[in-house]
Amino acid sequence: MVMSIAYYLEDQNNDQDSVALQILSQLERQSKHDALAFIMYIQMLECGFTSEETNKTPTYNCRVVAEHIQHYESIITRKNNVYNIVLYVNKIKCNLDLLVFCNSLIANLSAPEYHILKSKSYKCIDVSNFEQIKILCLDFKNNIVMPVRTLALGHISIYSAGLLGLPYDVLVYLIKHYLKVQDFINIGRTCKALNYLIDDQTLWINFCKRENVNLGRDDGTPKTLFRQYLCSKKIFHNFNHFDVY
């Protein structure tokens, strides 16, 4: 699948600006945090972990730089240069901030004070193996973050997360760009945990734009306008469950 923007660290390139770089710069300047610890924190957010237990109600949680720093420092403790991070994994929805790094950040890993350690022996391994952010991200996610997430989901008897395991922002992106309206409605009809998406007006605005429906009228919500459009085209019989919720 080709996306127009980079959602994950390993998909980032040097042509895109990054809020995370501003955060990292302030962290290093203010309190000398390790760049590597912040990378690990962002990767865990990308994989569905959150700083608090969340409910099923979607939110668009876009923090400014200062709030990100406060959030990061509130959940991470450091003792004798060992970081302890406590995060939750949620089966339905997570407060995911789509943060990305440029490859230029990896230059910090070549400095003597940054090392990648094996969990038990604390033996430094060759940092040259991680000179590319893509290699570092994939290795950490595949060997640490995702196995932990799988165990957490297994503990609550969810062994195949499917749509339930997708971060909310990624799920919305897929619906807006790839699903037909009928498939979208079926999601709300067949999956009770996701039926709130039926009333997400942001999605209906996107559907209206896809079908060139006039959004300038004042006689209803985007969902209502799209329903009227279907009626006018005499194809509404294909959407039997349009008003299920």
UniProtKB/TrEMBL annotation:
Coiled-coil annotated spans: none
Origin superkingdom: Eukaryota
The protein's name: F-box domain-containing protein
The organism's taxonomic lineage, starting at the top: Eukaryota, Metazoa, Ecdysozoa, Arthropoda, Hexapoda
InterPro entries (UniProt xref): F-box-like_dom_sf, F-box_dom
Domain F-box: from-to ranges: 165-209
Pfam short name (any one): F-box-like
